[in-house]
Amino acid sequence: MTVFEGRFTDTQTLRFAMVIGRFNDLVTEKLLSGCRDCLLRHGVDPDPEGTQVDYAWVPGCFEIPLVARKLAASGRYDAVICLGAVIRGQTPHFDYVSAEVTKGISAVSVQTGVPTIMGVLTVDTMQQALERAGIKSNLGWSYAMNAIEMANLMRDMTTALGDSAS
Q1: At CA 106, angle to CA 68 and CA 81, rounded to 5?
Q2: Integer Cα distance of 142 and 154 in angstroms
Q3: What confidence score (pLDDT) does residue 166 get?
Q4: All structural domains of the chain
Q5: Which phi and psi angles does 8 have, rounded to 5°?
Q6: CA of 18: how far to CAs of 6, 54, 137, 143, in Å?
């Protein structure tokens, strides 16, 4: 029996892309900071001038899946991390955007085989968003951990099973 499980080591050769929504940048900047801190503490150089992490800024969350797919399909990255915040308002706009972003990010992973991390907060209030982006805890850290774990898991599975299993 074989057990596949991601790990948080051997990060020096991993490459990541991040797609960050500018809308609600008070929140997304904090998520990005938590994500970069986690990567750094796990041996990944998150410097934009470096070779391990590339950054793509998009206007809002709705645009994240398109850019994430382009990056994932390039074959350059072991994982793509998507960061954004959709905050409920008084119209149904929240429901449409959050549903489409979630489906779109999921589709990127399935279509490309590249782990694409759903780091888009969908919350009722700005207070809830800020709590998740640093006041109580920073989920950006968790999103980076997920990316490291999944990148290593997929790399190990590809090595063990070969490319025909993708």
Answers
A1: 45
A2: 18
A3: 53
A4: 16-152 (3.40.50.960)
A5: -115, 25
A6: 20, 6, 20, 11
27-54: pLDDT as tens digits: 999 999 999 999 999 999 999 999 999 9
- Catalytically active residues, by annotation: 93
Q: State pLDDT tens for residues 4-20.
A: 999 998 899 999 999 99
The pLDDT, as a whole number, for residue 125 is: 96
Question: DSSP letter at 86?
Answer: E
CB atoms within 10 A of CB 123: 20
Q: State the DSSP string of 18-84.
A: EEEE-TTHHHHHHHHHHHHHHHHHTT----TTSSSEEEEEESSGGGHHHHHHHHHHTT--SEEEEEE
Distance CA 83, CA 118 (A): 7
Is there a contact between 77 and 71 (Cβ–Cβ < 8 Å)? yes
Angstrom distance (rounded) from CA 60 to CA 7? 32
The answer to whether the CB of 117 falls within 8 A of the CB of 14 is: no
3-state DSSP call for residue 114? coil
- Structure confidence by residue, pLDDT tens digits, 102-138: 999 999 999 999 999 999 999 999 999 999 998 889 9
Q: What is the tens place of the pLDDT at every residue in 149-161?
A: 999 999 999 999 9
